[in-house]
């Protein structure tokens, strides 16, 4: 996507050195810093510490991590379990986004039987790059498939502003291009539909106010940052027409894990009769899990992320402590919205209801797996 006239993605391979490069999203919006990932430890740190974040991007980064592992494999350990243990380490970096397992396994399965090291490295790189392109294309299609939801509302409002609420960052920074939740928004913007986005700040790490607001602003999309608790009030007063969010893992029955607070937005949307959609590529479906609340692992992160806030002061980013220094904090990073609160899924194959039957109708090849 365009950043100040320059095409950017959140991850790419340097054409000459073939080093993996990522935008350090912890530093946005105040600094645009690019980091080089040379080792598997670098890749794990980038995922764990959230230089990269968002389910599709975590998956693509994991895929590039296998390429890095293949490239750095010691000569004397070519044939042992080096690659499998590096893949296991990559998959342990974050627990909730299923894309990480998907991306790592996809590259590993492609190269596991290749004996020649140079060929193995080449195959890993090609597969990781293919996965990045696939996810970019999937997000483009999510935009195409989801825009009619916004168009319908615009028509019903006689061309009046369509107000969309989103939580966290499910934009191109979280994916490769377009985003998931933002893809229909960008598509509607291209079609000159009058729209405005309510951006939940998304505490504790403020992916909404730091990242979604930055993305939308760079693209020229009208938006307003709100506190995480404002959505219900706006919905009660007719100021939200539609909620679209992304997801880190969705069961084949339609239960949705996403950034903490998503569930409360879904409850408020249902209470106010506002459509609540989840946009996702097929890599975010977990075809093994039936009961999202019982089975999806919910990441608990460092409580200091809750206690401290970063912001710009006098041209420099500063970190400040908010609660009393001795108050304990807890940091649950995701929650699960049950399928019954979701109006539909927007995928690369089309839009469907949030039910096992409808999901499997869209992905019939998965019927055998579940
Ligand atoms: O902790 P994060 O920033 O990785 O969480 C990201 C989200 O919750 C996104 O909404 C989700 O990954 C969908 S990204 C298209």
Description:
With 370 residues, the protein is an alpha/beta fold. The chain contains twelve helices and 18 strands. Strands 8-7-6-9-12-17-18 form a seven-stranded mixed sheet, sandwiched between helices. Helix 2 (55-72) packs antiparallel against helix 5 and helix 4 (99-111) runs antiparallel to helix 5 (117-156). It starts with a strand and ends in an 8-residue tail after the last helix.
Q: How would you summarize the topology of this molecule?
A:
Elements: E1 2-3, E2 6-7, E3 11-13, E4 20-23, E5 34-37, H1 40-48, H2 55-72, H3 82-91, H4 99-111, H5 117-156, E6 162-166, H6 182-190, E7 195-200, H7 207-219, E8 223-226, H8 231-236, E9 242-245, E10 249-251, E11 256-259, H9 262-271, E12 276-279, E13 285-286, H10 292-295, H11 304-307, E14 308-313, E15 316-321, E16 334-337, E17 344-347, E18 350-352, H12 356-362
Parallel strand pairs: 6-7, 6-9, 7-8, 9-12, 10-13, 12-17
Antiparallel strand pairs: 1-2, 3-4, 4-5, 10-11, 11-16, 14-15, 17-18
Helix pairs in contact: 1-2, 2-3, 2-4, 2-5, 3-4, 4-5, 5-6
This protein binds 5-S-methyl-1-O-phosphono-5-thio-D-ribulose.
5-S-methyl-1-O-phosphono-5-thio-D-ribulose is lined by residues 53-56, 97, 168, 170, 174-175, 179-180, 207, 246-248, 258-259, 333.
Shape, please? globular
Binned, the helix content reads 25-40%
CATH H-level homologous superfamily name of the largest domain: Translation initiation factor eif-2b, domain 2
Give the overall average pLDDT: 97
Q: Radius of gyration over alpha carbons?
A: 20 Å
How many strand units?
A: 18
Q: What CATH first level of the largest domain would be assigned?
A: Alpha Beta
- What is the H/E order? EEEEEHHHHHEHEHEHEEEHEEHHEEEEEH
Given the helix and strand composition, which structural class is it?
alpha/beta
Strand order of the largest sheet: 8-7-6-9-12-17-18
